[in-house]
Design goal:
Chain lengths: 293, 265
């Protein structure tokens, strides 16, 4: 009897062996990974559309894509990242079906290289002054960045739309040198800039309006407009186009139509962009010459 | 083989309540490791392959990668601080009971021909390398300002994002990533190489763990037979450097010299 119990115990011990556990763990890992992996593997499926965009548009594209799937059943395999990097990939060997990039010149390059079939204006960005809640330093104009004692936060080393474009804007406004002298934090990331500002580490910063609309920062700062005449033109424009690698050109074009519809554009407005399909958007299309080549 | 046979025969000599206790602990550990894999596994994936910063897991509050788990916990610092806090109570138990990286190392260690489960000058020295890893990580994070060295793929598919991140990563990010992957791969040759010799978090937990309240430890009955060292997946003995309190060694000691619980100095 005692011997039987011992035997059963040993059997139980074997059943609980590490090998069995590790095998199960591998199975669980593969099982957990499959839902993420399979859509990528199924990108040839007609019900999946591959869309790449500038990362700054992600806050608009994510809900827009969800809505598109609700309406059509088509899932969007979406990648959002720095547009210049994605553009470089596309001009090399990378492929996608729809591309929404920043800077008109990039869309034109893709068209010229025969990678993109057509593009249309999508939306525009704008730049604003932001201050901590309550605007303790009493900032009212871009010239205030030159006042002695004003603590400016900038991100000159950030990706060009947040770094180089802002220094270009300050230069155009004639305040660059003094503003740089007043800069207490010179960061490399616009989101960190916003975080520092919201936490009161400075009096003012210059950022894209879209950043103030992010859930992380919404309602946590004061926003003061900057005259549009100071905006550097290149980073203002976003376009959306169908790529030559689109498996179903009609389906890709239908998606573009949805994004440019009133419903689609509302997601971009909510995320802090100026929709192309608006009075201001149409004015900017003319002003900036956002036309397909 | 004779070694394994020796262990089994010694296990049979153990008191039934020790065997039961060990079996139960094994089950609990396997359960928590599975939970750790499911909850933290994807986060580990992002940390290695998608995090644009050189030191992952410490800048989640301003990371642009929207789909990363690090953004789920808005109070992520509070969440992360639980790990070093746990070390004050349970030593490196996180490594042995929850860490997905620890589990991967354990899986790879199953086929590793070299376990370094011996006591000599080399095995006494190399566990200190993880403190070098910790010092480098602290310097890059706090001294160097945690530079962003890869293009953050804010949203993207499982594999395509990894490819894009590698495609546009700066040289230093590529070196960092291959260093980590290289150490993980080395686990196929040397059991748990990353956990034992390189993991910066393991370094933090080892330091804090030396003050822990509860742990697996040896008592005065220990006759230095080193059966525990042989069975240990990280090649250590209870209470010594790298011990992650996994409790696997409880069942191999014929002298009843290994205990788990409150450790009184």
């Amino acid at each position: 009897m005692k011997g039987d119990m011992k035997h059963n115990n040993d059997k139980k011990q074997a059943f609980l062996s590490r090998r069995a556990f590790l095998t199960t763990a591998v199975g669980v890992t593969i099982g957990a990974a499959l839902p993420s992996v399979l859509p990528a593997a199924e990108k040839t499926d007609q019900n999946i559309l591959q869309v790449w965009s500038c990362g700054g548009l992600a806050e608009a594209f994510i809900p827009a894509n969800k809505r598109y799937k609700e309406k059509t059943g088509i899932e969007v395999a979406y990648t959002g990242a720095f547009a210049a990097a994605l553009g470089k990939s596309l001009l090399g060997g990378g492929t996608t079906e729809v591309f929404a990039g920043r800077v008109l010149g990039l869309a034109k390059k893709l068209r010229k290289a025969g990678k993109m079939l057509f593009f249309r204006p999508l939306c525009f960005t704008s730049y604003v002054l932001v201050t901590p809640k309550g605007n303790p330093a009493g900032i009212s104009d871009i010239q205030d960045l030159t006042k002695p004692g004003i603590k400016v936060i900038l991100a000159p080393e950030a990706f060009p739309p947040g770094g180089k474009a802002v220094t270009g804007l300050l230069k155009k406004a004639g305040v660059l040198d003094q503003a740089m002298k007043n800069t207490v934090i010179k960061g490399s990331c616009v989101q960190r800039t916003m975080e520092d500002l919201v936490n009161g580490k400075g009096d003012v910063s210059v950022v894209e309006y879209r950043l103030t609309r992010m859930s992380l920062f919404k309602g946590k700062s004061e926003i003061i407009p900057i005259a549009a005449k100071y905006f550097p033109p290149p980073p203002l424009t976003f376009t959306i186009g169908v790529m030559k690698d689109a498996k179903d050109k009609g389906s890709a074009a239908d998606y573009v139509d949805f994004i440019l519809s009133e419903e689609g554009q509302s997601f971009f407005e909510s995320a802090g962009f100026i929709p192309a399909m608006s009075d201001e958007g149409e004015r900017l299309i003319e002003k900036l010459g956002v036309k397909d080549v | 083989m004779s070694e394994a046979g020796g262990i089994i025969s010694r296990q049979e000599n153990l008191l039934p309540d020790v065997k039961t206790q060990t079996g139960q602990l094994k089950w609990w550990r396997r359960l928590t490791q599975t939970v750790g894999l499911l909850v933290l596994g994807q986060w580990s994936f992002y940390g290695i392959f998608r995090c644009p910063f050189l030191v992952p897991y410490v800048s989640c509050q301003n990371c642009p990668v929207i789909t990363c788990h690090g953004r789920i916990f808005t109070m992520f610092w509070g969440f992360w601080l639980l790990i070093p806090l746990s070390a004050l109570f349970f030593g490196r138990a996180f490594c042995g009971w929850l860490c997905p990286g620890g589990l991967i190392n354990q899986l790879l260690g199953r086929v590793a021909p070299v376990t370094l489960s011996v006591k000599n000058r080399l095995t006494g020295l190399i566990p200190y390398f993880k403190y070098l890893g910790l010092a480098i990580a602290l310097y890059v994070w706090l001294g160097w300002g945690q530079p962003r060295e890869a293009i953050p793929i804010r949203v993207g598919g499982f594999f395509s994002s990894v490819l894009l991140t590698f495609e546009h990563g700066n040289l230093i990010w590529i070196i960092r990533t291959f260093f980590v992957l290289g150490f993980l791969a080395a686990g196929i040759l040397i059991a748990s190489a990353w956990c034992r010799f390189a993991c910066p978090l393991g370094g933090v937990l080892s330091i804090l763990g030396s003050f822990s309240l509860f742990k697996v430890y040896k008592n005065e009955k220990c006759n230095e037979c080193d059966k525990c060292l042989k069975i240990c997946e990280v090649g250590t003995r209870p209470g010594e450097s790298n011990c992650n309190n996994c409790s696997d060694c409880l069942s191999v000691c014929s002298e009843d010299a290994i205990k788990i619980g409150r450790f009184r100095r």
